[in-house]
Prior knowledge:
mainly alpha, Fumarase C, Chain B, domain 1, Fumarase C, Chain A, domain 2, 3 domains, two-stranded antiparallel ribbon, about 5% strand, Arg_succ_lyase_C, EC 4.3.2.1, argininosuccinate lyase activity
Amino acid sequence: MDQATQHESKVSRRLTEETAPEVCDLIYLPRLASFSAAFPYLTEVNEAHLLMLHSRKLVSDTIAQKLASAILQMDRDGPEQVKLDPQREDAYFNYEAHLISLTEPDVGGRLHTARSRNDILATIDRLVARDQVITLLDTLAILRQTVLEQAAKYVETVMPGYTHLQPAQPMTYGFYLAGIAQALERDSNRLVQAYEHINLSPLGAGAFAGTPFEIDRKETARLLGFPGVIDNTLDAVASRDFIFEIMAALTLLATTWSRIAQDYFVWSTDEFGLIHFSDSVAGTSSIMPQKKNPVVLEYLKGRAGKVLGLFTGAMASLKGTNFSHTGDANRESIAGFAEMIQECQYGLELLNLVIHNAAPREQDMLNRARRNFCSATDLADALVSKADMSFRQAHHVVGAVVREAMDAHHNADEITAEMVNRAAHMQTGTSTMLSIDTVLTSLDPLLSVKKRERGGPAPASVNNTIEHGREILTRDQKQNASRKTMLSESRMQRRKQTTELANL
C-alpha cells in the first residue's frame, strides 16, 4: 500500500484525506460510546433488510446465507468484539466493516443494497423510542397504582386546600391524590399518542428519495413489528418529531412531578406540619444536628428543570435546520433524548417512593382546617341559601367577619352568630339572623367536604374517581402488555427466519 492510500478516508474514496484527529476525538468517538446500546437495534434492522432482499431476489441464496450467518455470529459475539475506529465515523460503518471481515467485501458489502445510513438511523431511532416509551408507560403505571392506593386510603382525611399558598377551602388528602392520578393518566395518554406516531417504519426510504430497487417496505416493516410505513421517503428520514413529542410529553410529566414535590416540600415544613416523611427519604446537615432535609423532593424539583432544559435545547437545535437529513436536525437535536429518558425513569421511581412514604398528620390537618378560615366560602353560601342574600353581598359580609376575627386573634372556629349577624347588618343594612348551629355547621370542614360532590372532595365522589381511574389503569396496563407481546413475537419470528436462512 502506497503512502497516499494510507491517508485516504476509510469509508469513502471521495475523501482523499483521513479524518482530522480533532473530528475523531470530539465528534465521532463520543458517538461511538453508544455503540453497545445501538448494536442490537442495528442487528434487528440488518436481519429485516436481509430477509427482504432475499425474498425479493435482490441477493442470491448463497450471499444471503453467508450474510445471515455473519449477522448471527456478530450477535452471539456481542458488540465488544467489534473494533471501534472513529476514522470510520459511526456505528454503522464500524458494524459493516466487521461484517465484511467475517465474510468478504463482495458479500458483506451487498447488505447495503437499497438503503442508506439515513433510513437506517431513522429506523433505529424509532425502535429505540418505541422500547423506551413502553418501559416508561410501565413505570408510570406503577406510580399511578401507588397514587390510587394512597388516595383510597385517605378519602376521609380532611385538610386545608390552598390557592396562592393561602388557606382556601377544605379538601381531603385522598381528593388531592385522586387529582394527581388523573394528571398522571393524561401524561400516560400523551406517551401513548406519541407511540402511535413512532410505530411506523422509515426503512427503505434510502437517503431521502427512495430507491430504484424493487424492495418491499411493508415486509421490512412487518419484520420489525411496525404496522405500516411512512409513505413519503423524504419525511421518513427528515423527521424526528416523534422524539420531540415524547420529549414534550416528558417535559409536561416532569413539570407535574415538580409541582407535586413542591406541595410536599411546603407541607412537610415545620411551619405547615401537614405531611411526615420517614427518615429513609431524608438527609441531614453537616453542622445542624436537628436538620431533616427533603433531599428527594429537592432532587425531583431540580431535575424537572433539567428535563425542561433538554427539551428546550433540542427544539433550539432543530428550528434552523432544513427539512431533510442533516446532522444537526437528526443527531444533535436529539442528543439529549437518552439522558431525558433516564432522568424521567429515575424521577418516576423516586416520586413513587415519595408518595408511598408520605404520611399525613391527620389530626393536625383537621385542626388546621378548622382554625384557618378555609370554610369561609361555606359561611357565605349559607347566607345565600338561608338569608336570601346575593353571593356578592355574602362575600362582603363574611370578609368583614373574618377581618374582625383576625383583628381579635380568633380562629375560624371561634366565629359566633352574633359576629355574622352584626356584619350582615353593617354591610347590607338589613337584619339577618343565622342561628349558631348554622354558623358552626357552615364552618365545619368535615361537613364542608361531605357537601362537595360532583367531582369535589366528598368521599363518594372521590371513590368514584378512584374506581374509574383503576379501570383506566387496568386497561392501559393490558394495552402496554399487548405492545410488548407483539414486539417480542416479531423479534422471535424474525430471528427464526434469519436462522433458517443461515442454515440453507
